[in-house]
């Protein structure tokens, strides 16, 4: 028995470690934000509305640009047996959200396992071990891997592309990135092109063979996404082409904020990579083989830096290669730790590991407090049971609340009915017969504030211990209609 356990641990120990951390993040922060809204609502509708397209959320709230349903279909199909049991047991739908997020996280970690195995074959088991350690110390990679973002769905294919690149299957690598580009994220083109150019310049591939192997894949991907998504969106479209046109040709992504050209290198990467950032640079210097893999990634980030609207999730696909470069450096430092100069580096590296762990813990605590609306609706469900004289209780969820933790998975139709109607002025709520409001406003005429939910506001430095603290403030307020005394006179959590 002990030998069997040891064998399983040897084969899957790293997967259990990474999977446990990712699952911990899912259970501790199960709710989703506006960036994830299309895919999470699509997964809900596929699981609960199935062929009844008229009930799908995206037809009422289509978003700025259309996205593909292909990823949502894959995750929903794999999660459907678990969701069926959850429905059979009449458990809250939030458990279904946890199920689909665990499935998505499992898919991404499986692709990361494929990449990690190629790392072991190419660079050795010690580099693989450090790759896992460094990935575990980071927050963003394992936190994001279960989040239903188009970037994360593309990350799975990017991982497969990296693995085939290390393995020497260059055409398969390109095909993986083509799939990711044409179906999930058109911006992966900024990684695909530098990689293709590098492979051509190093004579790893020929142009004619590349066209032969990749053109067919591209056509198949385009046909599949047009067929599937035209049915789901009820109009002829290729989602990622419309996204490309909106972001790159019209350059309208800047309407959601802009960052300076250096932001990815001076803010996003240091926060995402932590100790990996300096180690990855050292890895390039210590092992020339790494240069082949990092050049396309650096080119990807440089090209992306030209676009004014920037977010960390846009470059999440670069993290595995940075982790590889850092793992090579960490392995070299560890092997030479008994030599005087290397011993100093080893001590600095070991200390940096603990600093990275502390930073990841702090980031997790901030993120845990960042889904206030989801908790607000949960607390309302716990206290907002049917009241005498009210045939149906209606909850209005304002735009801010819908963006910060609430999805269809959070709803409970046995208790309440829900409205996300937009464009209602705050003074007009008095004339509307909503039973409850989940709102960003602390006071609404005609309603009493029943309770509020605090959320992360900022990090504060102070002279006492601990030197860093999180400032949390009331973010979302739940109000009850004054026309229903049974509700407003009830004992609630209170507002602050």
UniProtKB/TrEMBL annotation:
Its EC number is 2.4.1.-. Pathway: Protein modification; protein glycosylation. It is a multi-pass membrane protein. The keyword DNA-binding does not apply. GO terms for biological process: protein N-linked glycosylation. InterPro entries: GPI_mannosylTrfase. One of its GO terms (cellular component) is endoplasmic reticulum membrane. It catalyses: an alpha-D-Man-(1->2)-alpha-D-Man-(1->2)-alpha-D-Man-(1->3)-[alpha-D-Man-(1->2)-alpha-D-Man-(1->3)-alpha-D-Man-(1->6)]-beta-D-Man-(1->4)-beta-D-GlcNAc-(1->4)-alpha-D-GlcNAc-diphospho-di-trans,poly-cis-dolichol + a di-trans,poly-cis-dolichyl beta-D-mannosyl phosphate = an alpha-D-Man-(1->2)-alpha-D-Man-(1->2)-alpha-D-Man-(1->3)-[alpha-D-Man-(1->2)-alpha-D-Man-(1->3)-[alpha-D-Man-(1->6)]-alpha-D-Man-(1->6)]-beta-D-Man-(1->4)-beta-D-GlcNAc-(1->4)-alpha-D-GlcNAc-diphospho-di-trans,poly-cis-dolichol + a di-trans,poly-cis-dolichyl phosphate + H(+). It comes from the Eukaryota. It is found in: Endoplasmic reticulum membrane. Keywords: Endoplasmic reticulum, Glycosyltransferase, Membrane, Transferase, Transmembrane, Transmembrane helix. GO terms for molecular function: dol-P-Man:Man(7)GlcNAc(2)-PP-Dol alpha-1,6-mannosyltransferase activity. The chain crosses the membrane at residues 12-31, 69-89, 94-115, 127-145, 152-172, 178-201, 213-233, 261-283, 290-307, 313-334, 346-368. Mannosyltransferase that operates in the biosynthetic pathway of dolichol-linked oligosaccharides, the glycan precursors employed in protein asparagine (N)-glycosylation. The assembly of dolichol-linked oligosaccharides begins on the cytosolic side of the endoplasmic reticulum membrane and finishes in its lumen. The sequential addition of sugars to dolichol pyrophosphate produces dolichol-linked oligosaccharides containing fourteen sugars, including two GlcNAcs, nine mannoses and three glucoses. Belongs to the glycosyltransferase 22 family. This is Mannosyltransferase. It comes from Trapa incisa.
